[in-house]
Amino acid sequence: MSRLATRTEQVLPFYAVELFKQASLLNAQGRDVISLGIGEPDFTAPAQVVETLQRAAQAGLSGYSSPAGLPTLRDAIARYYGEHFGAQVDPARVIVTSGASGALLLAAMTLINPGDEVLLPDPSYPANQNFITAAGGIPRLVPSSAAQRFQLNAEHIRTHWGPDTRGVLIASPSNPTGTTITRADLAELIAEVRQRNGFIIMDEIYLGLYYGDAPQSALVLDDDLIVINSFSKYFHMTGWRLGWMITPETMVPAVEKLAASLAICAPTLAQHAAITCFEPEVMQVFETRRLSFKQRRDYLLPELEKLKLHVPVEPDGAFYIYADISHHSKDSTVFSHRLLHEAGVAAVPGQDFGSAHAAHTLRFSYATGLDRLQEAVQRMARFLERQ
């Protein structure tokens, strides 16, 4: 066999997936493992959405859509941004994709040339680096502290922007930290990037799962961003593989051209079903579930502190808690392994999200029921008592 492409060696492993495999193997062997590792909601699509899918399938609506997606769905997404996130969006700027991953791939392929450098915070979602690498770019992680909410800020741009830097990829709320970028900090960061004629890819996948006052899209501050979002997290449709991107008007033809070749279109039946997500009674289901996630966060935060698993920045979105385990261990990989095999609790070691805080952090996902979170806390307490 001929040699593999160099990029296969550059692509980073995803330790959360490896942890999920280990937990699944233990479950198959009869062990009861509580997963606080994988970022997948325990809720699934509401019944109304499933019924719409069934009707669409029975009606034979499974053929290709246009590369940009069904017009009705694009209209619904644009209205959603206006009604819920304060951003007026022309539906022509909405591109429906095969999950947020499809959107990130299209954004990277549209904006990044070989050798271009893109800045990301350390810590950040590991797959984001791989999309940059796939386009021939160079991801550069910038260490971000708890005082900076583990986010990029304007000072990072001023300090780390180099001759090959072309843009930034940021997320608010973030995976793994659940933290948002404050409005003032985001405005200042955008201004610094704009001064350098750079691009901004904004991951708003968890924007619907925000626990403060009414959330606002970054598009409110700057209409010339590339925004990524998904039906996986807030809408609880992970396996449906449906997402979207909102691009500047000038980018739409290029993105559509790439989408036509790389994906043809997003899954059409899923698109038909997703239109139902925006009906008022279905949106109320999602709001009730959002409050359930908030309840879980509010339970788990003080319990982790009692266990001396310190949370340096309170998460205000998503369903993750980024905890400092320094009191118990200086090696998060070993600690995660022991927690899984000795306590039956899966949590992702910090190495998945960058090197800056890798040794002393774990990411806990509370995308599981409150009763299971309570059991997980009891198991961890017993485990730590034996140390």
From TrEMBL:
<dbReference type="InterPro" id="IPR015421">
    <property type="entry name" value="PyrdxlP-dep_Trfase_major"/>
</dbReference>
<dbReference type="InterPro" id="IPR015424">
    <property type="entry name" value="PyrdxlP-dep_Trfase"/>
</dbReference>
<comment type="similarity">
    <text>Belongs to the class-I pyridoxal-phosphate-dependent aminotransferase family.</text>
</comment>
<dbReference type="InterPro" id="IPR050596">
    <property type="entry name" value="AspAT/PAT-like"/>
</dbReference>
<dbReference type="GO" id="GO:0006520">
    <property type="term" value="P:amino acid metabolic process"/>
</dbReference>
<keyword id="KW-0808">Transferase</keyword>
<dbReference type="Pfam" id="PF00155">
    <property type="entry name" value="Aminotran_1_2"/>
</dbReference>
<dbReference type="GO" id="GO:0008483">
    <property type="term" value="F:transaminase activity"/>
</dbReference>
<dbReference type="InterPro" id="IPR004839">
    <property type="entry name" value="Aminotransferase_I/II_large"/>
</dbReference>
<keyword id="KW-0032">Aminotransferase</keyword>
<keyword id="KW-0663">Pyridoxal phosphate</keyword>
<dbReference type="GO" id="GO:0030170">
    <property type="term" value="F:pyridoxal phosphate binding"/>
</dbReference>
<protein>
    <submittedName>
        <fullName>Pyridoxal phosphate-dependent aminotransferase</fullName>
    </submittedName>
</protein>
<feature type="domain" description="Aminotransferase class I/classII large">
    <location>
        <begin position="32"/>
        <end position="379"/>
    </location>
</feature>
